[in-house]
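Task: encode each sequence below as structure tokens.

Item 1
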Amino acid sequence: MTGRAGAPARLEEALDWLDHHVNLEAIERGRADATPTLDRIRRLTELMGDPQRAYPVVHLTGTNGKGSTARLLTSLLGSRGLKVGTYTSPHLERINERLTADGEPIPDDELAEVLAAVAGLEPLMERPPTWFEIVTAAAFRWFADVAVDVAVIEVGLGGTWDATNVADARVAVVTNVSLDHVAILGPGLGDIAAEKAGIVKPGSTLVLGETDPVLAAVFRRAGAAEVWERGSAFGCENNRLAHGGRLLDLRTAGAYYPGVFLSLHGAYQGDNAAAALAAAEAFFGAPVPDDLVRSALGAVRNPGRMEVVGRRPLCLLDGAHNPAGARAAGATLAEEFAGADRRVVVLGLLKGRDPAEMLEALDPSHIVLVVASPPPSPRALPPAEVASAAANLGLAAEATGSVAEGVALARARAGPDDMLLVTGSLYTVGAARSVLVERGAWG
């Protein structure tokens, strides 16, 4: 999933070089290569002249919702006329998606150029950087090259030891904390919270979405100059279903915004919108004007997250990659898509996920078929294991050799009034999206 399809020769060469580096997204964690350190990325950015210091940064972490919050925040910051660089991960279809300026992915020639610039510095390093460190450094460099006014940076994993943490953020955002990546971040929620709190820097404002008192205390101790907490400093007061999205009453420290339309599905997006709005207010030092909030939130798009890509059958793509995400997806299906009682589910997971737990969260009583398909990753959970777990829940299940095969099978089995849901790993969703949307396969 490095986005080679149709790439010019120069970018092809750059991506080949990139892929010869250790990619912790694509291998089993816990290897020696995964030893936590910021030494390599610090050395790399130092050789580049520390481009991450050329613009103010808003840094986001959290177990779920940080990608959506990043998109919402990008739209809000851009509404004030700022040029906004946004760095997110993973990508759905092409690596270019990770680096955007004003919502537009980095062009192929510019991506090839910035990767070549990083490649030229590698011989000066004692140890070669990892795949993610290279892409992160490339993002910092590109944002400086195109002179962004602000960069919205999403962590790859955790916080303290994430490569993005060489940036000193003016505003830090924590969406929430739940159990995920416990083998890396720690066995308990407190350990995970402490790791995520590492993005909080002295003098910054922390926008804290996590409300558990014990976990919130971990973040309060992280050293921010100000802590804005969900419930007291900001929040989503009302969250109602609307055609094509949600209708929200949002409150920040400095303003109240009743009846704001958000063009995203899922009640949980109300919390993400409130956090993004609070972060924008913290960044500007003043509330965002009402009309700009309405235009920004009413136009935002979030591919691969409760994205409707087809009708008859209704086809949804949702990267519910962990149990908390699956529970949120299940709640959204029950509230917003209750008319489609029969669901054909294409499910592809990475190793370490419990397919039974994921399926239980999606309400097996509505699932008529599970199509187990492997996400395009070396860390893919074998489809046979996913199908076996589904069968143990009493569900009909079939295993396929690829996401494209799984989508084709699901489309053949789903009736016009059924729902076809592609979910699990974002790698699964991205592969399905390339078939259903980019290749025009939806008829």
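Item 2
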Amino acid sequence: MAHLPVGKPTLALLKKLLAKLPQRDPRVVVGPKIGEDAAVLDLGDRYLVVTVDPITFATDEIGWYAVHVNANDLAVRGARPLWFTMVLLLPEGRATESLVEGIFAQVEEACSGIGATVIGGHTEVTADLGRPILIGGMLGEVAKDGLVTTSGARVGDVVILTKGIAVEGTAIMAREKEEALKRLGCDEDLLERARGFLHRPGISVLKEALKGVETVKVHAMHDPTEGGLSSGLYELAEASGVGLRIFRERIPILPESLKFCEALDLDPLGTIASGALLLTAPPEDAERLLERYRQEGILAVAIGEVVGQEKGITLVAMGEERPFPRFDRDEIARLFEASS
């Protein structure tokens, strides 16, 4: 039997696996489904929202990554992240007290910035591990009338994207593939700007997600991560039972992201995209929300529309409409597989 490649399994395999998981507790409002970023549990007067996510590609500032990637999954539910747990695995022969202290400091700084508290976890030195691995879990609360899911998109909605695509991927490339990028003509100024993408424009979508639900009735939100914008769109469409029509020229790609993807022969549409927020809202609400984002200094663009499921997911480029490209795994995974 063939081995699976580096990165997430395909959506088809995940769908098959998730279909075999029975839900025994009626308090599970949202369980494991394609495209749904976090579980939702009914606590009576409110919902508890729970997620878990690992940091595997990055080694630099993994504590910061872990907190914000997990917080994003709660933000797209309309929930505030409150409690963080983590499992930190350190490579044998390379783990030091200063390494552990540094990662813990990153976690605490990130949690402090969003108002969350570390409530537990596990730390160990692990044999046969090539790099530190941090698996985070985040819990938070949302009022019952404030819950947003990935599955709520409706035909006629406008699709909005914030910040731009491949933000996290750009930071990872600058931090993990610096020498390769220098050989390919990327100078130090470009690399320095891209390293800073972790913080500016940043991989957190907490602010724009919460501003969104404060401003209008958002129908659906999703956090495109591994697999990039492409996987995010396919997951949103799968969860909602809709099609999507996306305009290529409207998709914001920051120049540093474009330069790195061209240099390393990656497609930005399939490159890990934490930092971008996908949401859908009715046209009249979408205009109000875009104006609110402009006032807040948040880049946001209407990149397409929700259409009937029978129309599929298409990309309109240079006046030509075709199926939106699909990626069996994140483009970043190819870089790490090549160097493993």
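Check on item 2: The radius of gyration is 19 Å. The chain has a mean pLDDT of 95.
End of task.
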